[in-house]
Structure to design on (479 residues):
């Protein structure tokens, strides 16, 4: 099946007629092609967005809200179609796509459809000076949204929904590895009555299509989620043009477990926070630190549970771990398992490729637990982004805090304890944009989402996203 660009409400081939193969990671086969879009296609998307902006930015909040909520409803109505497409394109278990990815994409539109009706700005009376200041929150114009392959529609819509809710028009690029649900979204937008040109989706490679978006002089803001190296590159390109930037980047998140936690809850959640979506979530707790007094018990129980996870074809309903997203990513993760061994890490379980019967060319890997001796090793410092976690014991709160913070990343951290004072001390000190205590990945879309250090710049979510996608203009009136 050939995917097309969605520009000005129409589906069109790339101007240069260049195409890229799209792989199904569950069997390693090519199952379609996507546009290898050039600068000219991005320019087309930009011109279409620009011409739609005048009217869209003046569309009432009620009308914008109604259209966004309609998109949300249509996504829910088409849940099965989108679920199947996401699972096939990405390799994730169909059960996960159905429970998380597509419902969340629908929630993103519903949430920002509602949020925009509540978004308000400030006014300041300058007492004694006979003046009043009020702040307008105006849409920026044409903005660029670039998203990764791990949660394709979920993260794509997390950017697009607030951008258009705030009155901007968008040129967007999903990952070239997982373009399918973004393509299908175009149909839904037309059905929902989104005016032509408000959203334009241009498919292609990061280094060409994505690059054309970030270096376009009139695309005034870029919202990007992806790897730290790509984020640094985007910052370099965008800075001389003074573009507004929101960068959600990599993570190497600590999962810190104290002996006083609720054990069963912690154990079950830790299996999930380690291996959900094949470990390909920027929030996964990939470094597990366990208080020394319960380390051996945890190790035995955790490894036993991980061994029970079923690696299988994404469409089997009892599959826990599907396929990794691509051959090159599979090879990268395998390479890290080898690095772990060379560094003296002990493989407690997993570490091998899995041949799923009937799908022998798919990219399947056993969930892998590596016991490490210290936190300096590469498998504890570098983002692997696959079904691989490390575990090691710690003695004291000070020791584990030091290790938790001694990475270049600072996206999320998870803490398991029932000690309130320790919770307060540690949540203050952890260098992360998001800290979960006695839970993981519990999301409330109103909360700020993002990282510190090399995990990113800026925050998404709630009014933070609407602030990003608007410019504040202060008006001072003397009377
Ligand atoms: P990449 O950085 O490789 O790619 C992300 C997106 O950027 C893709 O659409 C990619 O296109 C595009 N891109 C690549 N090069 C350029 C360029 N020069 N200019 C513009 N766009 C470009 O990341 P991955 O897709 O590999 O995603 C995995 C990474 O994303 C991990 O590091 C993960 O931690 C991070 N991530 C962060 C999250 C967060 O919220 N902080 C959430 C989820 C993931 P193409 O795919 O075609 O190359």
């Amino acid at each position: 099946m050939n995917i097309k660009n969605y520009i000005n409400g129409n589906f069109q081939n790339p101007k240069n007629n260049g195409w890229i193969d799209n792989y199904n990671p569950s069997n390693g086969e090519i199952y379609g092609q996507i546009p290898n879009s050039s600068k000219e296609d991005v320019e087309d998307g930009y011109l279409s967005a620009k011409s739609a902006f005048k009217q869209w930015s003046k569309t009432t909040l009620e009308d914008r809200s109604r259209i966004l909520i309609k998109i949300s409803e249509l996504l829910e109505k088409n849940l099965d179609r989108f679920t199947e497409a996401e699972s096939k394109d990405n390799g994730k278990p169909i059960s996960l796509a159905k429970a998380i990815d597509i419902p969340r994409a629908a929630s993103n539109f519903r949430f920002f459809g509602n949020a925009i009706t509540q978004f308000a700005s400030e006014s300041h009376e300058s007492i004694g000076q006979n003046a009043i200041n009020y702040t307008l929150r105006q849409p920026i114009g044409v903005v660029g949204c670039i998203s990764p392959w791990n949660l394709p529609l979920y993260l794509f819509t997390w950017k697009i929904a607030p951008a258009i809710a705030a009155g901007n028009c968008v040129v967007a690029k999903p990952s070239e590895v997982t373009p399918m649900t973004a393509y299908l979204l175009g149909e839904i937008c037309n059905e929902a009555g989104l005016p032509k040109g408000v959203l334009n989706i241009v498919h292609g490679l990061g280094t060409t299509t994505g690059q054309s978006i970030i270096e376009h002089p009139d695309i005034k803001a870029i919202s990007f989620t992806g790897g730290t190296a790509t984020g640094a590159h985007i910052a370099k390109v965008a800075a001389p043009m003074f573009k507004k930037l929101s960068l959600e980047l990599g993570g190497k998140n600590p999962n810190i477990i104290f002996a006083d936690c609720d054990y069963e809850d912690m154990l079950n959640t830790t299996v999930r926070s380690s291996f959900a979506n094949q470990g390909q979530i920027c929030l996964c707790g990939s470094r597990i630190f366990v208080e020394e007094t319960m380390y051996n018990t945890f190790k035995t129980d955790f490894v036993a549970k991980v061994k029970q996870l079923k690696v299988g074809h994404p469409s089997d309903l009892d599959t826990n771990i599907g396929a990794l997203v691509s051959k090159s990513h599979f090879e990268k993760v395998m390479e890290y398992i080898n690095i772990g061994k060379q560094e003296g890490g002990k493989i407690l379980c997993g570490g091998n490729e899995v041949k799923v019967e009937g799908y022998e060319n798919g990219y399947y890997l056993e969930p892998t637990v590596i016991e490490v001796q210290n936190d300096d090793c590469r498998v504890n410092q570098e983002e692997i982004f696959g079904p691989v976690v490390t575990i090691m014991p710690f003695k004291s709160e000070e020791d584990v805090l030091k290790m938790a913070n001694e990475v270049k990343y600072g996206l999320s951290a998870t803490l398991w304890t029932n000690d309130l004072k320790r919770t307060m001390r540690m949540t203050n000190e952890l260098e992360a944009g998001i800290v979960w205590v006695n839970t993981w990945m519990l999301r409330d879309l109103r909360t700020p989402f993002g990282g510190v250090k090399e995990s990113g710049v800026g925050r998404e979510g709630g009014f933070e996203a609407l602030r990003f996608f608007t410019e504040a203009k202060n008006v001072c009136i003397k009377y």
The chain has a mean pLDDT of 98. The first strand starts at residue 5 and ends at 7.
